[in-house]
Automatic annotation (TrEMBL):
Keywords: Signal. This is CAP domain-containing protein. Residues 1-24 form the signal peptide. SUPFAM superfamilies: LysM domain (SSF54106), PR-1-like (SSF55797). It comes from Ureibacillus aquaedulcis. The keyword Signal applies. The keyword Signal applies. Residues 36-80 form the LysM domain. InterPro entries: CAP_dom, CAP_sf, LysM, LysM_dom_sf.
């Protein structure tokens, strides 16, 4: 999925991930979670997940305030323990990994701009809530349109999107193994980045100010 507009490259990657959890007899129950995260399966509820891992469902909801309990997205990742990395930490880790790769190529690190991050987070949330996977949002239009709508000016911009990856390292591996996405990450003209994550959707927005 590649799009070229002027000199700006937009690339998207969709990796499907399937899992099957039977919520009846035979499901293993735990006195406490053996790990910090859980990947949502079809039919899951906070109540069932809490019961399976010996948790209070109200505490589970508190740990995942951005997750709609009435519309849990299959494939999204939720925190089971307070020690689990927050969404903000997920986003910061993606930026760190981007700058590690740029350093290897002799490029300047990108600044994680709060204004661009805000747009990337809204795009990730929009992809989940409006059930689509595309660079063009039915609500905000293209990434160009979206950046301008939120008052961000730029000389050049690009976007990487992904869906279904469970960690910053996993999504970065996916992007780096795709030539188009890698080209955006290692493009020397960009000096700013915004990363958004929401319920399994990942967005990188690159800008040259």
């Amino acid at each position: 999925m590649k799009k070229l507009a002027s000199l700006l490259l937009f690339c998207g990657l969709f990796l499907f991930s399937f899992s099957d959890t039977t919520h009846g007899q035979g499901v293993t129950m735990y006195k406490e979670p053996p790990f910090e995260y859980y990947k949502v399966s079809k039919g899951d509820t906070f109540w069932f997940i809490a019961k399976r891992y010996g948790l209070d469902y109200r505490e589970l909801m508190r740990l995942n305030p951005t997750v709609d309990p009435l519309n849990m997205q299959v494939g999204s990742t939720i925190r089971l323990k307070g020690s689990g990395t927050s969404v903000a930490s997920f986003e910061e880790e993606v930026v760190r990994l981007v700058n590690v790769e740029r350093q290897k190529s002799g490029l300047r690190p990108l600044l994680h701009r709060a204004d661009v991050k805000n747009v990337a987070e809204k795009k990730a949330m929009d992809m989940i809530n409006s059930n689509y996977f595309s660079h063009t949002s039915p609500n905000y239009g293209s990434p160009f349109d979206m950046l301008k709508t939120f008052g961000i000016s730029y000389r050049a911009a690009a976007e990487n999107i992904a869906k279904g990856q469970r960690s910053p390292q996993e999504v970065m591996n996916s992007w780096l193994n795709s030539s188009g996405h890698r080209a955006n990450i290692l493009n020397g003209q960009y000096n700013g980045i915004g990363v958004g994550y929401y319920n399994g959707a990942w967005v990188q927005m690159f800008v040259q100010s």
